Inverse folding.
């Protein structure tokens, strides 16, 4: 912070003296209002408290020259005291500047994360795919990744980082790159979870955990195989029986232990069946515990099963948003597959 | 013309002596009351650090008064433990008193320049200047 030049300081002193002298004579509210505006200027010019005392002292010395003998030491004492307030004031100012820099960086980081973790929803002739992910705050702690091979295989990873903000976003980038190195192994859900578990366990802070539901649809055999690492179960709507079955699979969260094993299960998908995968932002109603989230989700899907997968995702979001009073406290992610 | 004088910092009262010396020199060079107070406060912080962290050391005040240059140079030296992470110490809000603007970043702002040299186990030298404009 550059000190104000001597000339500028003299100018301020002259202005201050005039405002003070006017006040001493008239003592009106208008005088004080003018003083307030002047103070605003002082602050804008970064004049520190000890300088203000000094300006005041000099003004008094000119207005009441004969009183200065007694008052001088008291003013000098006050200047001494105010130097410390000045230090605190300047620190505050430089912290504010730092904060503005951080905010700028945060903004850039957010847009990088958005670009980095953008999910491309594939279009296949054999299965209708819908996906919607809405972050509660600036950075999304949920992530969806698709793999496919022609129209024959479709795999999907639905992930949720336990934790929020920047650390969660960084961790998610690792999950993404872990998934991308899988190449041809993407058809085996338990293997995928084991690999990603090792990536996270090695690379990320101990306090960082990730839940993942991983499913692979073989459209030739109509087989959906899946595994889960501490994630919300998916829902399978069996169209023929008009029934929902929870696709539960036990498995530890990713990143807890290095050599965790995961098991996978299989289920046959018939025509018009619907698989719904989601994060806990969809199922958890904080403060509304009496509501049964499963019932709400299943009835939305059953009542609207003729909509496209994407339309179903959007409708589900609107319904749940309504229940939360349009203020979701968690990241919301849903993926729907329709045979 | 340049003149040097110094104060050994051994007891807490030597901090007062260092302040007094600094104020006298600043005044003699022609600094106004406010800058005298700033220079003195900076000296006080440096001397207090010596007293607290190195036990003993020295504050040297140099008054430079030539045609082209008028400044006060404060040099604090000690053979104490040294400062581990100078960069961190110069960061805002790191000092133990935290958030009141004191400590070395505060000294830097009171003065016009601040240079810290420190070797672990050998000691610390801090040089601060203030120019008369
Ligand atoms: N002369 C020195 N020798 C060794 N260590 C020092 C010395 N001066 C400072 N330090 C180290 O640097 C740290 C920061 O010093 P600084 O004066 O900025 O803050 P502080 O003394 O901790 O708190 P404050 O001065 O605000 O009361 C100190 O805590 C101390 O560890
Ligand atoms: Mg200190």
């Amino acid at each position: 912070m550059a000190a104000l030049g001597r000339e500028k300081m003299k100018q301020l002193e002259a202005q201050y003296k005039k405002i003070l002298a006017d006040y001493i004579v008239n003592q009106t509210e208008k005088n004080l209002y003018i003083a307030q505006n002047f103070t605003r200027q002082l602050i804008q010019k970064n004049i520190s408290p000890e300088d203000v005392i000094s300006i005041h002292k000099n003004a008094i010395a000119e207005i009441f020259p004969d009183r200065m003998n007694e008052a001088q030491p008291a003013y000098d004492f006050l200047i001494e005291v105010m130097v410390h307030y000045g230090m605190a004031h300047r620190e505050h100012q430089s912290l504010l500047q730092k904060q503005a820099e951080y905010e700028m960086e945060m903004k850039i980081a957010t847009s990088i994360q958005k670009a980095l973790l953008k999910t491309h929803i594939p279009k296949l002739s054999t299965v209708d795919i819908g996906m919607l992910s809405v972050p509660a705050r600036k950075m999304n702690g949920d992530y969806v990744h698709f793999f496919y091979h022609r129209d024959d295989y479709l795999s999907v990873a639905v992930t949720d980082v336990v934790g929020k903000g920047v650390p969660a976003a960084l961790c998610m980038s690792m999950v993404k790159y872990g998934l991308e190195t899988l190449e041809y192994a993407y058809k085996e859900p338990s293997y995928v979870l084991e690999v990603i578990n090792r990536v996270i366990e090695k690379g990320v802070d101990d306090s960082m955990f990730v839940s993942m539901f991983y499913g692979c649809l073989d459209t030739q055999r109509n087989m959906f195989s899946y595994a889960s690492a501490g994630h919300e179960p998916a829902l399978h709507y069996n169209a023929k029986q008009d029934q929902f079955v929870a696709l539960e699979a036990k498995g530890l969260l990713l990143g807890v232990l290095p050599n965790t094993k995961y098991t996978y299960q299989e289920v046959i998908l018939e025509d018009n069946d619907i698989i719904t995968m989601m994060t806990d932002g969809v199922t958890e109603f904080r403060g509304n515990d009496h509501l049964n989230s499963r019932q709400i989700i299943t009835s939305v899907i059953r009542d609207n099963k003729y909509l496209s997968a994407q339309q179903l995702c959007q409708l589900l979001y609107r319904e749940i948003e309504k229940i939360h009073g349009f203020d979701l406290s968690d990241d919301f992610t849903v993926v729907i597959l329709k045979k | 013309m340049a003149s040097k004088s110094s104060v050994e910092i051994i007891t807490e009262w030597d901090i007062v002596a260092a302040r007094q010396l600094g104020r006298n020199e600043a005044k003699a060079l022609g600094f106004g009351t406010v800058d005298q107070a700033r220079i003195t406060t900076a000296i006080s912080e440096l001397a207090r650090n010596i007293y607290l962290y190195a036990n003993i050391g020295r504050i040297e005040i140099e008054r430079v008064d030539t045609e082209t240059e008028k400044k006060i140079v404060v040099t604090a030296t000690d053979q104490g433990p040294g400062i581990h992470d100078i960069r961190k110490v110069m960061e805002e809000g790191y000092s133990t008193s935290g958030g009141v603007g004191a400590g070395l970043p505060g000294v830097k702002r009171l003065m016009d320049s601040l240079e810290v040299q420190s070797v672990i186990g050998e000691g610390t030298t801090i040089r601060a200047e203030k120019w008369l404009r």
